[in-house]
């Protein structure tokens, strides 16, 4: 999403391209590329050079939400794929787990997304995992004073420390939503209400901004409203600066540009 919904993330390093997969936010975090490869290969056999990797990613995101119990939405199609990647953009523009609320909101606004989109799309953390290294600071030294984040539930913090020590275990995985980790629902927001958000960037949605906190409360109470807004925000995000017409290309292999 750095330059738009253009599948730049899928490119492997080659020639003058340095893959975004190796950036700090994506390294050992973004996964499932082999699933996209299989979908693309099947489509190329039936309809060569017709369906872009960017459209595949967008459809796969929608279908993964539906398959885990979440909402569905109509996906606008016709995107084309980028011919380059930006590891510097990935490192600098993707919100980091320990960013302040204002920094996260600013990064969303730079992409044309607003506070409502920020809170709703963060609800996608009802599915997935995070590495120990992405939240260790919360457990041991959040403010540089050698103490845990005061907004983290004490007993939840004790549990996390059992598998996320001060050193080592960087790649140990933890559910972003410990309550219903395999179901797309509003449990993520309920966790925030009791200070059990895994990442600092999750918990600040409830602790750092009044308007954001009101939305967290609303989505925690009304799963239907969360589903409706999540679908709207996903369509909005999928329409960020798409490559269309003659811009970009339709890759034959999602991992490399056409020759």
UniProtKB/TrEMBL annotation:
InterPro entries: Haem_peroxidase, Haem_peroxidase_sf, Peroxidase_pln, Peroxidases_heam-ligand_BS, Secretory_peroxidase. It catalyses: 2 a phenolic donor + H2O2 = 2 a phenolic radical donor + 2 H2O. Its cofactor is heme b; Ca(2+). Binds 1 heme b (iron(II)-protoporphyrin IX) group per subunit. Binds 2 calcium ions per subunit. It holds the Pfam family peroxidase. Keywords: Calcium, Disulfide bond, Heme, Iron, Metal-binding, Oxidoreductase, Peroxidase. PROSITE patterns: PEROXIDASE_1, PEROXIDASE_4. Substrate binds at residue 95. It is an enzyme of class 1 (oxidoreductase). One of its GO terms (biological process) is hydrogen peroxide catabolic process. Ca(2+) 1 binds at residues 4, 6, 8, 20. GO terms for molecular function: heme binding; lactoperoxidase activity; metal ion binding. CDD domains: secretory_peroxidase (cd00693). Heme b binds at residue 125. Residues 1-258 form the Plant heme peroxidase family profile domain. Removal of H(2)O(2), oxidation of toxic reductants, biosynthesis and degradation of lignin, suberization, auxin catabolism, response to environmental stresses such as wounding, pathogen attack and oxidative stress. These functions might be dependent on each isozyme/isoform in each plant tissue. Belongs to the peroxidase family. Ascorbate peroxidase subfamily. This is peroxidase. It comes from Mucuna pruriens. The lineage of its organism: Eukaryota, Viridiplantae, Streptophyta, Embryophyta, Tracheophyta. The gene is PER72.
């Amino acid at each position: 999403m750095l330059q738009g919904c253009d599948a730049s993330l899928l490119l492997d390093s080659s020639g003058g391209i340095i893959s975004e997969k190796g950036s700090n936010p994506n390294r050992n975090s973004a996964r499932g590329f082999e699933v996209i490869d299989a979908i693309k290969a099947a489509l190329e056999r039936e309809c060569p050079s017709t369906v872009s990797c960017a459209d595949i990613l967008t459809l796969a995101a929608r279908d993964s939400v539906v398959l885990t119990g979440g909402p569905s939405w109509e996906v606008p199609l016709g995107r084309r794929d980028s011919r380059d990647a930006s590891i510097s953009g990935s490192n600098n523009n993707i919100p980091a787990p320990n960013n302040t609320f204002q920094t996260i909101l600013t990064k969303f606004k730079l992409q044309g997304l607003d506070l409502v989109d920020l809170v709703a799309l963060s609800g996608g953390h009802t599915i997935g995992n995070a590495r120990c290294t992405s939240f260790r600071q919360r457990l041991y030294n959040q403010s540089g004073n050698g103490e845990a984040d005061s907004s983290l539930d004490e007993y939840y913090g004790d549990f996390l420390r059992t598998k996320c020590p001060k050193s080592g275990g960087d790649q140990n995985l933890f559910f972003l939503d410990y309550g219903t980790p395999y179901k797309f629902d509003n449990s993520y927001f309920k966790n925030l209400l009791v200070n059990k958000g895994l990442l600092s960037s999750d918990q600040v949605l409830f602790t750092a901004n009044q308007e954001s906190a009101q939305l967290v409360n609303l989505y925690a109470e009304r799963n239907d409203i969360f589903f409706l807004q999540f679908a709207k925000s996903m369509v909005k995000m999928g329409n960020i600066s798409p490559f269309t017409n003659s811009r970009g290309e339709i890759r034959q292999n999602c991992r490399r540009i056409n020759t």
